[in-house]
Amino acid sequence: MSALSEQPGLYFVVATILPMVSFLLLILTAFLRHAARACDSPLCNTLYRVLGGGRPGRTAAYVATTAIALSFVCSLVGAIHFASHGQDHHRIEELKEEAHHLESEFAHRPVEEHPKIEKELQTVNAEIHRLESKWVGRIEWANPAGPYGTKKDARASILYVGYRIDNLTVVMFLMVTLIATLIHIFSIGYMSEELAEEVEDHQVHTADGHLKRRGRFGRFFLFLSLFCFSMLNLVLADNLFQVFVSWELVGICSYLLIGFNYERQSASNAANKAFITNRVGDAGFVIGLLIIWTYIGTFNFEEIFKTIRAPLTDSHGVRPLRTKIDGEYVPLGARIVRANLVVEDGEKKLVPSQTGDQAVLFSPKVHLHVEDADPGDETDESKWYLKSFYPDFDSTDSMPYWLLVAAGLGIFVGCVGKSAQFPLHVWLPDAMEGPTPVSALIHAATMVAAGVYLVARAFPLFTAEALIVIAYVGGITLFVAATIAIVQTDIKKVLAYSTVSQLGYMMLALGVGGWVAGIFHLITHAFFKALLFLCSGSVIFGCHHEQEMTKMGGLFPKMKITALTMLVGVLTIAGTPLFSGWYSKDMIVAQSLGYVRLHPEHFLLFLLPVVTAGITTFYMFRMWLMTFTGKPRDKHVFEHAKESPATMTIPLIVLAVFSICVAWGWPLHDPEASHLNKVIHHGQPHHVLADFGGLAELGELEHAPGLVFKHVERSERYWALKLHGLAELSAFVAAGIGVIFAFLLYYQSRQTGKTRLDPEEAREQFPGVYALFANKWYFDELYSALLVRPALRVSQWCKAFDLRGIDGVINGSGRCTVTLSRWSGWVDRYIVDGLVNLIASVSYGVGSWLRRVQTGYIRSYVLFLVLAAIGVFAILSYFLAMAAAG
Amino acid sequence: MQYDLLIMSLVIFIPALFALVLMMPWFFPKGWEELMRWWALLGTAVTMVLSIVMFIHYYQSVYQIDSNPDDKSTSLLSKRLADVEKRELNHEAPLGNDWVARIPWIERFNIQYYVGVDGISMPLILLTTVISFLAMLASWNIENQVRGYCILFLLLETGMLGTFMALDFFLFYIFWEVMLLPMYFLIGIWGGPNREYAAIKFFLYTLLGSVFILIAILGFYFTDVRDFVDQRRVEQLVEQIAKSKHLTVREAEQQATINTFDIILLHRVGEAASNVIKNKSEHIDIPGIRAAGSDQEKLEAVSKRLTDQPFFQKWFQITMFLLLLVGFAIKVPVFPFHTWLPDAHVEAPTPISMILAGILLKMGGYGILRIAYPICPWAAEYLAGLVVALGIISIVYGAFAAMAQTDFKKLVAYSSISHMGYVILGIGVWQVTTGTQYWSWGMNGAMYQMIAHGISSAGMFFLVGVIYDRAHHRNLDNFRGLYEPMPLYSGMSALIFFAALGLPGLCGFVGEFMVVLAALNYSITIAVLAALTVVITAAYILWTLQRVYLGHNPAYADYPDMNLREILCIVPLAVLAVVFGVMPNLLLSWMSPSVTGLVETLAQLSK
């Protein structure tokens, strides 16, 4: 407890670990239960029965729900502590000033007083450290130098895991734990069918009817707990590495839960698709990580930002950084500084330039000293503020600028995968195969928002080039997904595409500098989209797992709570004034308008969200009208439809209330007054302002009065605020048109079942467009042709190369050896042995011929003797004659 | 007797002793097969316990007695060995806790029984004893010729442990070959239908590798290393020659040569060779030069020996390095020397596949780390590109080839090739201009990957074996739907397969990630390729999981889940996979000082 009061950041750590505890408890019991089932002994049988036996119990749900509810409580307590930490912040500032003062004392005071100052300085620094470490902490995770390593401060030498609590973390924690708790409660009702010993899966057909399987109630909550841990760990992390780890873990939870009904081929396909598509994104993420690791040497967010962004002031903490780039004085504070590497007299030097191919790296060790430069300007009084701000980059490091861009884009590719952005959005609609609470929690409110969260968290890492890519990806996504949503008939698919589209809004906002707007929308969207999904779940549950809207209709009287809460969700997403979605969506539109005002060539970034605002209201109202109003389209479904139990409707009501008023403030109509907005605004990294807001908010006024107006005029944020009304109006008009068309096309009269305009006719008028939308812009086909099939073909090539190529050589050489040895066998037998045998047979032949000489007659022996003597004599005399002659 | 010598020898030879007892028909008469299995299991268990005891004592003596925590040198074999040498020459009793021990064996050829452990071999030894124990536990299904099986199995274990501990080339080579023969018979007799082809292929491939290694060993042996040993030994030798041949000291001096099989001594020679080739003779600090002092004549003789011997020339270094590299690469196996692996795996019985994938493949990586790199550092640096290329090709090629397989075991075999590619990549990324930390991540990652792969691949092969015992086929297209009848089995499979997939929180991730962290510092292209391969890996593993466990299949609806023996077999692997995935420092803390020490030593040479 004392640790918690000393370091209240640990409340969030506890909140993260609680679901893990639940997961471990559940998985250990599951393991023991199955192990006991496998062994046949009385003891094991008893154990098996004690642990629940064959029939799933509700205990798992209670354990998991308690854990996540406690998590919420912890986050709440932590948040309350955090809210009061503003004073700490103030105190830290004071202490830092004091420390600075003490340091300067050294020069003024006599030497004998130095130890005393030293001591004071130490106490002050200890206090600063204590206050600062209240909300941060980290431990070593992997250290290849070992505990005896001496390279502790070297870059890229240790991987840490840790936490850092700021406004963004707190807001995310509260959102995730609250929504997760509600969804856990909802799931107890929704998943109750899984409590049966035998469940019939109507979507899987076997030879004798439908598939019958054991209930999986416990397993669902097991996975949910693991997910909650991973998601909270993702938000908690103070470094990219830990984010990546959690990133993969939420991915695997998503995989497991999408494939919850794994007997269905569609479910297991969707699970694979989700994970593999995400892995494509993750490959990009890894590349980003590697660039950062190699060139910046740390994964810690703060350290990365401090390295790639210029500090606000020079090392003395007094003068803001400003330098002359290409003849113009430019503020550097909190910006990425580009430079050219120039070799002068054998020494490398960094010369700042707008188009430099190097990015300056600001190590805290490098002393940035501002010198009085440009004395020539002294004559011009109006430029007095320029003359003294010239940092010297000679001793700083740098990295190739394009790699910094690539690092940002790499991380963003990861976010594209996770947040289902174009072109990796294809997995999310398929992921609707998972049970509806999963869709609500993972595929709407939390996990898919992680991509947006990470872009916001890593915002200072993105260069201007990366940000414009982010904006366009968001813009394209929000439009494409919305167009597909128009033609979907599955209630969950509509919501899935709507989620993709809304995530696109958030990305767009971040890309055009609307950091606050993006996160704001993330939070409000989490509430209303969780609400919408749970409502759809309630509808599906009430209609006995019917998801097709073409079989619904007229359900309003049967399920009033669901219908009304869902209407709240629809109104919120449509941007009805004073509902939470209105504040955040308008803020995004305003932000993009502000951006387009300064960069008219990017007008699409304003056009797309406005048009899509209309499309959004159209398809959302279409969904609601098709489900709840008009004449029932399917009698069977209608007759059996019923309202869901209280465990399900209570979460709906709570979420509806949050959807309406989570963004409220006073006065109600002012989005800037919203409390949530303010909290997020305080959490905004100042780098956003440096990139998009001009410097007016950076306390630069007293240093550069002449520049203020000019810079603010040039800032996107200025125009976003100024044009807010116009943006609001255009979004409102677009939404209005959407509503009107939705009613014309889909509001049936209850008796006749007729609408004012016939959707069929509309469809027939634009067959090409309809086919494009209905086939989801042919992305699946494209990927199958361009990626999946080529990959399979390559793998077949590899297999064939192994069998025919390498093994061909191996077996061939084997055969050669065998053939060679046959030859050598032949040679052995017929040549070598042949020769030996030949000699043998020749001598035998000669011998047998000579045998005939042995006649036994004395006279023939005498004849031979004489002949031999003559022969010997002849030879001898020949040799003797030769010798005599020689 | 020295404690460390005793316990190291026991760990090596206990399996062989148990095998010896098994050979005696009067201890285990025919028909007592069950008892033979238990006996063999006991043998592996005793070895495992002893190796753990050894580890604990190693840990204590190398780390905790060390008074100066900044001194990492005790984790380096070479440092400990220098002390051993000094004690020998001073006729002091050897220490019992320095974990290097040697006694002369065949003095005529300067061959020693010479063993030692450090942070590189220790984890592999533990892996060997644990996997062997589990593999023996998985051997209960072996029905025919149980006695022969157990004997060969235990001999194999001795061979493997000996290889990891031997520091004398001759001893090393003997153990290396001892490992090969039992494996040949284990595949050839107890294997599947095509076992003879597989066994011969395995044998010939590996024998080819061994021959390469043997050539290299002989090449090293014929180098005169007299300037690298304590000069008192040279003096003794000179005296001896002078006495026996009636020569003057000066003449004897010229005739004295010392040849060695000492691996650690050859490390020092290799370092000097790198400096000689790079013309950095001022960095060479060896006893020969120190002893010569300012004696110009002696110095000249030394430098003549340093420049004229082939060992100190480029072509020799490159040739030897290539011989060693190919020899070990066959074992790893690395593309294009890998095709024995799928066949051997498919035909080998389950426990032998576990050993093969879990331990035998690590011999290659170990050999490269312990022998090829330190002895031929110059060539290793010169050919770093080749090593890296082999690594990345194996990673990509193995992953693609795995995706195309329809035989479950073949798929796992190809995944091994892909995963072992990370080991080679991690070792190869020799780029230290911006500091040694990146290569150190790579090397440590390679070691970590070896351990992780040992755990996950042994687990995967075991799991394939479990289902093969029930279904009697391994065709991936004919499975489906095992999750419902066998939840425990499928859960464990998911865990182990996810570990292989490189899911964070499981062991496979750590090694892979560490290696990849080092890769970009070497080459952006390589890093990008390695990063993109994770997609293929995910694809083939998830596709496999889908084809085997998901869906439903009435044909398998009544399969029993794992039994107690099978559970006992897989649970330790699952636990290890999680523990090493969550707490890498548990292993790194005592492994990395040795590995990083090696990196530092080698990096010193390229400065």
Describe this structure in words.
The complex is a heterodimer of chains A (886) and B (607). Chain A is of the alpha+beta class and 886 residues long. Chain A contains 32 helices and 12 strands. In chain A, strand 3 (199-206) and strand 4 (209-213) form a beta hairpin. In chain A, helix 4 runs parallel beside helix 8, helix 8 (217-236) runs antiparallel to helix 9 (240-258) and helix 19 (560-574) packs parallel to helix 20. Chain A is extended and about 155 Å long. Helix content of chain B is 72%, strand content 2%. The relative contact order of chain B is 0.09. The two termini of chain B are 43 Å apart. Chain B has a two-stranded antiparallel ribbon. The mean pLDDT of chain B is 88. Chain B is mostly helical and 607 residues long. At the A-B interface, helix 2, strand 1, helix 9, helix 10 and helix 31 of A face helix 7, helix 17, helix 19, helix 20 and helix 21 of B.
